[in-house]
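R.M. (postdoc): so does anyone remember the format we settled on? I'll just put the structure tokens first.
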């Protein structure tokens, strides 16, 4: 029996009377007579990425038939994604990009799925050879994916392999957010950041981690804040490169804010002033947008690469921050799983799903990693009113996609923060 999971072939594996799903190529034998087709909702099932060839052939056919719009000469990225760069990227996607190589890159790690709150959740669970390693939950955002972290997994699980200290090792848990990538799309409303945080708390408990660290940027920072705020007995520390917070009511907003912070905040507000329209669309009508993005790989690439261009530290040239392969591995993941629409719905849910347990202050130790080209900048004085800030690192470079742009800076700061919590630094 074969079932289709948004463009990815799924094989049903039977263990006793339960059914587990593993991505696999080829057909699977029919179940034996009398077999029970029930899924143990608590089962943790191995998972392997193997996109069917017909999905990739269809992608290539659509790329061959791309119809790009006109563009006013010499406008570059001012109106949105630059047409000349997009044409170059699409040509590379069609003729040179090797998805199978990136499948192998992904499958070098240990993937699993498990059902939580009705959603079949995908995650990488990469344990360190060091049995005393610190459990760490890494949470991505939009339009990112687990691909963001593939370049830092070995550095965090086996620091000694790069000349680091084995005592800085982590056991990593890296979920695809519900509705993103290889995680199933929720079939009901209400899946905002708070509910995702609850799902991840359940996941960590199911994996046997009573206490653990959390690291996140973008939605990962928002989900991580909910985790740290609502599960302080489990979260030992929260490291985030996406610190959000405004001035406290009734207090002079400039109190404790340096001239450098005011200048950076003004620069970031100006830079993002014409870059936030996507939030209005995805926060109000994500389904309408999703029709076009789910049907056209060119449209999908244009929508996503514009964010990678606008939100990274690149001097105006997106490939000063990312390679074409990094960009397209992430974009292709959205394409083959048909998850762009369900991923965009997190913006709608954030606006419309009521928060049951709002977090006014995060009491667990918190580290802010401040990258200069992040889309928002929160002065430290504002952050300290909302988080127990014990570490604040202003980075020399980097933007929104820290794990891809500045992996060394991010890894060093994560190691240092949790090393301080363990009392070793």
């Amino acid at each position: 029996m074969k079932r289709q999971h948004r463009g990815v072939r799924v094989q049903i594996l039977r263990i006793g009377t339960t059914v587990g799903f593993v991505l696999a190529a080829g057909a699977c034998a029919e179940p034996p007579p009398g077999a029970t087709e029930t899924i143990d909702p608590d089962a943790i099932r191995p998972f392997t990425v193997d996109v069917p060839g017909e999905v990739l052939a269809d992608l290539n056919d659509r790329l061959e038939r791309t119809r790009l719009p006109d563009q006013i000469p010499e406008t570059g990225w001012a109106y949105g994604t630059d047409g000349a760069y997009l044409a170059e990227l699409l040509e590379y996607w069609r003729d040179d990009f090797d998805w199978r190589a990136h499948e192998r890159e992904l499958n070098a790690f240990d993937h699993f799925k498990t059902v939580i709150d009705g959603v079949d959740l995908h995650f990488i669970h990469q344990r360190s050879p060091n049995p005393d390693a610190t459990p760490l939950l890494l949470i991505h955002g939009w339009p990112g994916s687990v691909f963001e972290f593939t370049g830092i997994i070995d550095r965090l699980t086996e620091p000694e392999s790069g000349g680091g200290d084995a005592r800085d090792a982590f056991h990593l848990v890296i979920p695809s957010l519900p509705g993103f990538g290889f995680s199933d799309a929720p079939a009901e409303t209400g899946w905002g950041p708070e509910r995702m945080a609850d799902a991840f708390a359940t996941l960590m408990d199911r994996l046997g981690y009573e206490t653990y660290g959390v690291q996140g940027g973008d939605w990962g920072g928002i989900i991580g804040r909910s985790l740290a705020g609502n599960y302080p007995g489990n979260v030992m520390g929260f490291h985030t490169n996406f610190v959000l917070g405004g001035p406290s009511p009734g207090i002079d907003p400039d109190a404790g804010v340096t001239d450098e912070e005011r200048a950076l905040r003004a620069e970031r507000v100006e830079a993002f002033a014409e870059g936030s329209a996507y939030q209005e669309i995805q926060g109000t009508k994500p389904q309408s947008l999703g029709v076009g993005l789910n049907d056209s790989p060119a449209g999908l690439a244009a929508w996503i690469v514009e964010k990678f261009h606008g939100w990274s530290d690149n001097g105006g040239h997106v490939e000063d921050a990312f390679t074409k392969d990094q960009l397209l591995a992430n974009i292709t993941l959205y394409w083959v799983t048909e998850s762009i629409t369900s991923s965009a719905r997190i913006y709608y849910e954030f606006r419309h799903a009521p928060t049951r347990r709002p977090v006014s202050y995060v009491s667990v130790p918190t580290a802010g990693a401040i990258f200069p080209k992040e889309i928002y900048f929160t002065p430290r004085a504002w952050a300290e009113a909302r988080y127990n800030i014990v570490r604040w690192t202003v980075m020399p470079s980097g933007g929104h996609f820290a794990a891809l742009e500045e992996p060394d800076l991010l890894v060093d700061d994560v190691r240092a923060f949790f090393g301080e919590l363990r009392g070793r630094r």
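R.M.: ...and that's the designed sequence above, right after the tokens. Also worth knowing: The mean pLDDT is 92. The chain is about 40% helix and 20% strand.
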